[in-house]
Amino acid sequence: MRFTKMHGLGNDYIYVNCFSQTVKDPSGLAQIVSDRHTGIGSDGLILIERSKTADVRMRIFNADGSEAQMCGNGIRCVAKYAYEHKLADAGGCFSVPGGDSYPASLRVETGNGVLTLGLAIDGDDKVQKVCVNMGEPVLTAKDVPVNLPVKRIIEQPMQFENRAFVMTCVSMGNPHAVFFRKVVSEVELKRFGPVIENHSIFPQRANVHFVQVINPAEFTMLTWERGSGITLACGTGACACCVAAALTGRGQRICTAHLPGGDLELNWCQQDNCVYMTGPAVEVFEGTWPQEEP
């Protein structure tokens, strides 16, 4: 099986071109190839497939084999791969309302619907940066989903392992729990990440983020990603943190997220209520996996 390893800010996945190959057990394969000691090493597996409604379709499988609806860093890499390997013809100009414009665009089918992406292309016809229209944030508790008897979860007092927390929840096609801290480096992420991810109030589990606001236009974040554990970046999570910061009066709608793997530019646009995320996509290497199935 041919594969390509790619990453967005260190959030790395194994990508398989399913225009020309078939993966019969992606859940099992994801667990094997993601292992950083006996496999290739990644946060999961992403299949690039044909789509009836968009230019390409992406399916995401976390390192534990569970299928995810959406991955912000992953979708940027899918767009880069699809363009550079000529799986799809890029369309016309893509523009952020009141913001930047990009000379080419692609549409990608995901578990959260079809998303449109703008591509920044260099002189060698390589994609260096991708802007994704991530859609409108979902704030209603039952739709995130979170099983709490409130309409929205904004600054909600909680207790996990007898420790007090204040939680804001947002869905960007997948559920996110956001916690603001004065000093994010002091958070016991390995302890509380899996506890919160798997808590009974989250029927689909949750991505967990701890955020330190530097100023209204910048924040630093750490992530425990659902199904993968600690990751260097989470694109949907950065979008959720941008929304949470604005909702709680801590941040602006246009801001920069500093993640362990690098920076993302975010814009919760007032004109259309969509969140636009801009960041890099990098191809690391190609290879052949000796067996298709586990």
Description:
The radius of gyration is 18 Å and the shape is globular. The protein is 15% helix and 41% strand. It has an 18-stranded mixed beta sheet that branches. It has a two-stranded antiparallel sheet with strand order 6-7. It folds into two domains: 2-133 and 280-288, Diaminopimelate Epimerase, Chain A, domain 1, CATH 3.10.310; 141-277, Roll (Diaminopimelate Epimerase, Chain A, domain 1), CATH 3.10.310. Strand 4 and strand 5 (67-68) form a beta hairpin. With 294 residues, it is mainly beta. It is built from four helices and 20 strands.
What sequence of helices (H) and strands (E) makes up the elements?
Answer: EEHEEEHEEEEEEEEHEEEHEEEE
CATH class term of the largest domain: Alpha Beta
Strand content bin: 35-45%
Global shape: globular
Question: Major beta sheet, specifics?
Answer: 18 strands, mixed
Helix content: 10-25%
Structural class: mainly beta
Gist of the model:
The chain is mainly beta. It is 15% helix and 41% strand. The mean pLDDT is 96.
SSE map:
Blueprint (H helix, E strand, L loop, with lengths): L1 E7 L2 E7 L8 H9 L9 E6 L6 E7 L4 E2 L3 H13 L9 E2 L5 E2 L1 E7 L2 E9 L5 E7 L22 E5 L2 E9 L3 E6 L8 H9 L9 E9 L2 E8 L3 E3 L3 H13 L6 E6 L2 E7 L6 E6 L1 E7 L6
Parallel strand pairs: 2-3, 4-8, 13-14, 15-17
Antiparallel strand pairs: 1-2, 1-20, 3-4, 4-5, 6-7, 8-9, 9-10, 10-19, 11-12, 12-13, 14-15, 15-16, 17-18, 18-19
